[in-house]
Amino acid sequence: MPLRERDLVPPVVEHFRGLGYEVFAEVEIASRWADLLAMGAEDVVAVELKVRDWRRAVRQAMAYQLAADRSFVALPLRRAQEAYRRRHAFEVEGIGLLAVDAEGRVRTVLPSAPSPRRMPPLTEAVRRRLGGTGPRDAWRGPFGKEFPKTDGSRRGVRKGLSETD
């Protein structure tokens, strides 16, 4: 069976949870939908998941920089190795690269830089929409088996990757 984007979700969610983040799926940022949004006490990290088209993923991750402090593209290991050969495309935009191997381990291939596009009012709006009021709030929320599922009460969070198979 071919690899799907949703197959990348559990390892990437666990990666960010291990770093102390609360992770949300399909979060609206400036009329676009970030696959994953990791929220910590000090920063917001957006992640675009792709199984093939890393160039498109970089463009999407750039858009998420409007509200995220940092932005990453997560790819299967083989595709991440291909994308790394063109790392200048990531580095010039400040986009990080994560590789997910066949065992579900996540490696940071390229670190992300602080977003050059961030608009603080958008960041704060995302935080408020997901349950907090400011950057230093203690983030608490329901944790599902994989990650929080939407219950329809959070505007700007939609179903999709949040549903597990």
Tally of helical runs: 5
Low-confidence region ranges: 133-165
Biggest sheet: strand arrangement: 1-2-3-4-5-6
**Ends apart, CA distance between termini:** 14 Å
Radius of gyration: 15 Å
Give a description of the structure.
This protein has helices at 5-18, 54-64, 77-84, 88-91, 120-129; strands at 22-29, 32-39, 44-49, 70-76, 96-100, 106-110. With 165 residues, the chain is of the alpha/beta class. Strand 1 and strand 2 form a beta hairpin. The longest helix is centred in the N-terminal third of the chain and has 14 residues, at 5-18. It is globular and about 35 Å long. The model is unreliable at 133-165 (pLDDT under 50).
Summarize the entry for a quick read.
With 165 residues, the protein is of the alpha/beta class.
Write out key terms for the chains shown.
165 residues; alpha/beta; Trna Endonuclease, Chain: A, domain 1; 6-stranded mixed beta sheet; 5 helices; 6 strands; 24% strand; disordered C terminus
Helices and strands in order:
Blueprint: H1 5-18, E1 22-29, E2 32-39, E3 44-49, H2 54-64, E4 70-76, H3 77-84, H4 88-91, E5 96-100, E6 106-110, H5 120-129
Parallel strand pairs: 3-4, 4-5
Antiparallel strand pairs: 1-2, 2-3, 5-6
